Amino acid sequence: MALMTPMLEFLEPARLWLLVLVPLIIVLYLFATWALGRKRLSRGQSTLDSVIPKEPTWRRHVAVALSILSLCTLTLAFAKPKTGVEVPRERATIVVAIDTSKSMEATDVQPNRLDAAKEAAVEFVQGLPDKYNVALVEFYGDANMLQPPTRDHNAVMTKINNLELNGGTAIGEGIYTSLDSLLLVPPDPDDPDAKVPARIVLLSDGKTQSGRDADGAAKESKRQEVPIYTIAYGTPNGVIVEEGGAEQPVPVDYAELANVAKQSGGKAYAAEDAGQLREVYADISSSVGVETIDQEVTTTYAGYGLLFAILAAAGLASLAARWP
Question: Which residue ranges form the domains of the chain, and what is each CATH number?
Answer without folding.
Answer: 4-84+295-320 (no CATH), 90-288 (3.40.50.410)
